[in-house]
Amino acid sequence: MKTFKLFTLLALFIAFTSCSNDDDGVTVLEIESRTVSNLHAPQTGGIDQMGNPLPISGEFTKFDFSTGMTTTSATEWDIAFRATSIIVNGGVSLETTDEPIRTGNAAAYFATGTMASINAVVLSSLEQDSVNGYVMAQWYTYAGPPTHLISPTPGKILVIRTRDGKYAKVEILSYYKDAPDNPDAFVDEERFYTFNFVYQPNEGEITFQ
Amino acid sequence: MRILFFIIISFFTITYSYSQEDQTVIKDTILTQKLDEVIVTATRTVRQLSSLPLPALIIGKKEIQNINSTRLNNLLNEQTGLITVSEFVGGEGIQMQGLDSQYTLILIDGVPLVGRSAGTLDISRVSVGNIKQIEIVKGASSSLYGSEALGGVINIITENPKNNGLKGEFNSRFGTFNTFDNSINLNYKKEKFAVSTFINRNSSDGYQFTNAADLNTVDPYSNYTLTAKLHYDISKNTKVSASGRYYIQDQIYAPTEDEAGKIKINEWNTHLKVNHKYSDKWQSYFEFYTTRYIADEYLNSVIDNSPFSKSDYNELLMRPEIRAAFNPSKKTSFIGGIGIDHETLDRTDFTTKPKINSPYIYLQYDGYMNDKLNVILGARFDNHSEYNSQFSPKTAIRYKLSDKVALKGSVGYGFKAPDFRQLYFDFTNNFVGYTILGYNAVETAIPELVEQGQILNIVVPISEFDGALKPENSVGYNFGGTYKPFSNLSMELNLFRNDIQDLIDTQLIANKINGQGVFSYYNVNQAYTQGLEFNTTLKIDNHFKISGGYQLLFAKDKEAERAFENGEVFARLSPSSPSFQLSKSDYFGLFNRSRHMANIKLFYTYDKWHLNTNIRGTYRSKYGLLDTNGNSYLDTYDDFVDAYTIWNWAINKTFKKNYEFGVGVDNIFDFTDAPESATDVLFVGNIPGRILYAKLNIQF
Fold first, then answer.
1. Residue in chain B nearest A196 by alpha carbon
2. Where are the domains of chain B?
3. The complex's ipTM?
4. Using one digit for the tens of pLDDT, what is the confidence trace for A79-112?
5. Of A47, A171, A179, the CB nearest to B578
6. Which member of A32, B68, B536, B590 has the greatest number of CB atoms within 10 A?
7. Which CATH code is given to the segment(s) B2-699?
């Protein structure tokens, strides 16, 4: 079933992109719309078995909208993931262990709506990571005991300015491996992001249409 | 199950139409002089229930005996609009007019039970073996009772010996899950002197659901209740009484497979009362009440017996009160009182040992303007050092349109003082790592955490905690009427609304370096509960009685409602589908509230065989326990606990006048909604399935 779904998405994606490739005399780049599955964002530390706080460490998994893929580049990334933390490549570091240095001018904000209804960027809402925290900290709802599930809050669309001044919107769908329909925090492997994104590759263009 | 319910309803309707035809016959042949029940809780004076301008209800001893009830929780569950809700391990609180159990005051003989360690007062600890009647008054009643009487008051009135001589009663019930309940009542009265004692032991093996792993859903427990009451008439006009109650419970505590421990509860109270009549018009009461509630629990590792956790809770309430009643005429009465509550609490995870003194004063007028119009006006003032002082007025009116129809309405203010936990808690969860701070604890605890280097960033500045936490408060409205078309049929309708403000909730105030949060309490929410309640009783003859009740309820958070209205709430059907916007009608309301609740009861007595039997059904429509789709609201796309109906049946036979033997089945159709897995939370935890029992009652 899951494989089938992924396959469908992939097929749609191929169909979509191949259509766009049919255009010739390209002056305006096509808006890209994709699904990223199982982006792994591991972390070490947190709390131990007895609940004592341990320092958090581990490399962030960096993502580049222009390629639509993860990257290990120190500079060519837009957002990065480590467990539930999402950072942008812009602003200041909270200086947690292994947190990368911000080299770009990325920024972000949360828009309320559906992926389809958020069509333009509100430039004044854009913020960067600061000493007050990560701008994209509250993307999820934690259910607490006994399920302890972490669910992406429906209706929260991440609007992002990339490191080089282009725009993207993101809807996070799942925090568990293979995006199961009924995730179980004790069974399903966590820290695997599945998200949809739309990327506007044309410089200065603030709409997604 | 639902179908069965409707069959009964239709049966009821048919019987009703029959009885209308037979009306004249019944009236002529049987003199049904029903003794009117009196209630003391509503006005703190003796009042006829039928003429009261407030929505109220009495459960009599006879009903308690006929349905073979032993604990307060199962008894209240069968009443219209009342439901017990499990809120923590082994604890069941009462929900009234859609308000949580923190907002209902529970009294025994007019004085409060304490021990709300987690907000809920566990009413299963109250034995009903020595009860004369239970009085339930719905609607805000802080004008007489102060804090906690926001949704209503439940007052348990214990029995007093009526006749001279020694009288005793032995009662024993044994049922499924090895549940034993044995009690002895001994009463002695000689002219001016009376003494009554009551001893009860209640124990059970508890029960567990298969999928809840090795853990018991209710762990084994045993408890004792001892009460003694002395009464002496010093003179015709001066009466003295002293009573004491002692309760002790042991319960196994095993929240996970690796842990084993015990919860031990010790509770006692003493109540001294002097009543003096100066004249026909004046009398006064002096009361001194003291109660202490101690709960100790510990949890050790199963493997090496090393301690996991240990917590103590020790609460004391002392209340002297002077009350005076003035009756200038038969149609007018005044009652007023002045007193002080002295409370202390010694508890694990507290920053201080709080000591609180709150003096109070109240006055109430109750009068008949003419034969038809009865007015009650009352108010109370509570002074407090830790939160804003409260002024609680109330007014109630009843107007008799005819012998058959009366209208009534009341508006009252109710409040619930912030509890000690909300003020002084300083608790860090050792397993997960989050911290909860009481409002007053924030100013000292946050700098400490900062110093220890545990804080990543502060979300709400400490200066926000300079003021005082406000009591949660509400204005309650009740309007309705009674209709008695015939002497044997009565109907009552009540529309209610509780407008609640300053509800206390937790908020994130800082983030810790371990990725967890620091939370504290604040006044934020506004909510309301509204709906209607309908009750009817039909006495077909002196042997056959049918009653039915229904409650419609809407319980909503006002901010949540606004969020839905503004289109800020979204949902998605599955993780792979995109989210969509929800509309106002998609908001279901507060957790754990059913839109519809109903009950029907049939009581039948067959004198020739000295037999009585009854069948009672209760229905509860679907309700949500938590948000299951990540938008933090309960909406129609969330998973719900399904509606259910429970049927209970009992039959009792009396032998040789003093022996009564009874058998019965609670939950005849064995309804259960067990968890499907260890993480399934949408199950009904306090209904273990069918319960068979037998009981024996001996009077001597």
1. B578
2. 2-699
3. 0.76
4. 999 999 999 999 988 888 889 999 999 999 999 9
5. A171
6. B68
7. 2.40.170.20
